Amino acid sequence: MPENRLAIAKLKRNAPLTPSDLESLEQMLFGAQEIESRERFEEVYGKDVSLKLFIRKLVGLDRNEAKPAFTTCLKGGNFSMSLPSPTRIQKA
After folding, report:
1. pTM of the predicted model, to two decimals?
2. Which of 14, 45, 60, 66 supports an S-S bond with 49, CB 3.0-4.6 Å?
């Protein structure tokens, strides 16, 4: 199953998946004896589970591949570590 390994490698490197990649991942996962079927998987993990995210959690995400995406995300925001100034307590 070389296509399964290719799709898993793409997940690990945070690379986009093709419809063919997703199909091979589904066949691998739902065809596994331990999983039994898509229905059993959905019964255990729910119907709204993203197959890509589920498998990425299992195999991990390569830290070096994630850094550029994280950097891009950070460049788009204005973040600060300062705390808001305390409010004054008014005397009665």
Report:
1. 0.54
2. 45
Look at residues 68, 73, 87, 88 and name the one whose alpha carbon lies nearest to residue 15. Answer: 68
- Summarised one tens digit per residue, pLDDT across range 36-82 is 888 888 888 888 888 877 877 777 776 777 777 767 766 766 655 55
Structure tokens at 91: 């005397």
E-strand stretches of 13-74: none
Contact assessment for residue 31 and residue 1, using Cβ atoms and an 8 Å cutoff: no
**Cα(57)–Cα(88) distance, integer angstroms:** 47
- Return the closest-CA partner of residue 15 out of 71, 65, 50: 65
Residue 92 has pLDDT above 50, yes or no: no
* Contact assessment for residue 51 and residue 29, using Cβ atoms and an 8 Å cutoff: yes
Give dist(CA 89, CA 92) in Å, integer. Answer: 9
